[in-house]
Queue: 3 jobs
Job 1
Amino acid sequence: MPGKLKPLDVEREIRPGKYPDGDGLYLIVASVTSKNWNYRYWKDGKQRWLGLGAVKDVSLKDARLARDAARLRVKGDRGTPGVDIVQEKRAAREEAKAIEIKVTLPTFEQCAEIYIRERWPNWSKKHRAQWPSSLKRYAYATIGKLTIPEIKPSHIYELLRPIWVEKRETANRVRGRIETIIAKNVDVDDRDFRNPAELTKQLREKLPRRPKRVVQHHPALPYAEAPQFLIDLSAASGIAALMLRFLIFTACRTNEVVDARWSEIDRPSSIWKIPGDRMKMNQDHVVPLSEPALAILDKIRDGSQGELIFAKPDGGMFSENAMLAVLDRLGYSHVTVHGFRSTFATWAEECTDYPDGVREAALAHKYKSETTAAYQRGQKLEKRRVLMKDWAQFLAGSNIIHFGEEG
């Protein structure tokens, strides 16, 4: 069946529009210099337009032949299913683009190595150990060789699923680290981007259900027994024993004391400034030092050689188990080092009238309200100084306890 268009019509037509020739072939005129052939077809209920070339390159006869060939591919022949030519070409372009991206973009593992290298100088020993090892062990096998655009939530699910229940904290940290590295390597102005490592409702529901967390408190020494323990501890020799005494007088965490540096001590002001990268809440913490705490530092200072306050004889850092060994030697293996924070907290709550804000600030706990947190950090130092003095007096066996003022 001959078409509707004539070669002269094709040559002379300059009005913008779509001019049918028949069986899905159209001459599409955009302007005097823009005339193209298109084949319109329907596939799976969707209308498609397949470009067959420009009029200046493709004659009417050749356009009809190209249309006929396309029709055969769309409809299929002799049991061969038809294809969606437009979708096929689109998929080919996307595949080519993906290959190009893969060649030019760094892999997730490379992005992670750059991120770690940039932050290494400012990281604590703990961060330096955990970041590379956790990503290598749990992430790289699944997403290490993928580029950032290739990573999907299903990849994150795949790597988290084996450890989501059995290694709860590790899984949380690994997911957070992956999310951070991905966020670091995307365009900040890309409003359509959604981080595949984000803990969305879909991902949380897909992962295995975790049993309800049972809070296990660190076994603590009753505060009434603390003065006697300090007497027993004073008879113990060695840096680890002095480190434990300092921890008790400051009510700080084990890792904060183990990694304490001389550069953090302001002796004239009697304070210890712990940088945020060593704190659980990633915020700088100022500890007022009582006289017994200062006396411990003065005793160690005489023989100290390096930056580390509580250093081993070879200058290295003690493990966090060193103070546990001291407890065991003294016959107090039934309590933990961290439990002395609970001992302090219970004493402060039951034996003093210091407001919650002062007690919580002394323990460097996080406040639910950011406004409250800023106020406590800025206004409670001197009140905490008196609190720590009272704590030292209590540990020394004094029955005279100063009660903090309200407010």
Note: The chain has three domains: 7-98, 108-206, 223-395.
Job 2
Amino acid sequence: MAAKDAVGRHGEQVVARRLEEDGWEVLARNWRVARGEIDIVAVDGHAVVAVEVKTRRTDACGSPLEAVTPAKVARLRALLAAWLRQQSRTFSDARIDVVAVTLPAAGAAQLEHVRGVE
């Protein structure tokens, strides 16, 4: 596995663990179809949430949040709709969240969670 992929997978693991610690129910990880992938699908209260995880070792190339473009958000909306069509469970709300993970050289990962990205 390439180093970049390993960093990304580690960030996703950190976020999934944090969401579960915060009482969320993680329903799927790395859900894929031909049009793309949702990193994490989870339930927060009555809402189903597609969580995009962006992980970086430093912010030398900008914030991880800057990597989530309007086109990416639109693709995530379409992917979440596709995921929902495959489910028998219903939800009263749906949204897209982004979690930026920075992995410093020493110490714990730093997370920035942005809810309801438009």
Note: DSSP finds two helices and five strands in the chain.
Job 3
Amino acid sequence: MTGFSTMLRVTATALLIAAAASGVRAQQAPLQDKPFAEHKIVLQLSDNDPRKQGLVLSVASNLMKHYDPDKVAIEVVAFGPGIDLLRPENPNRKMVESLVAQGARFDICLNTLDTLEREAGKRPEFIAAATPVQVGVAQILFLTENGYTLVRP
């Protein structure tokens, strides 16, 4: 029975690993539904510098103006201090919401929110226009593996 119990343990471990891996993928935002997009860009925002936030928003806005919004898929991934762009009190909130209305997507890293909640004892609020993803950097990797160009303004 030793061989059988070892086989059971190996199978159980494999199932747990598969379940954990599929759970991570389930928390990833799916690719945008933009069948006519000729250009796909992911913008990384990982710091809380207001100038950097403005630059990311400017790049996204300029791309929307340069290309037809249906011809470009833009995804901003905010993690670490970069999530401050997606807080309700951020002065750029209206610009973010305007870009979302034009078809851009703004992802917020749940790992960052979890860390801030552990440190402060309260979960930070974020705007409804933000799309939660489990791991911001994993979302960037997923997008680049699916044809997006990474830009770090």
Note: Residues 2-26 form the longest helix (25 residues).
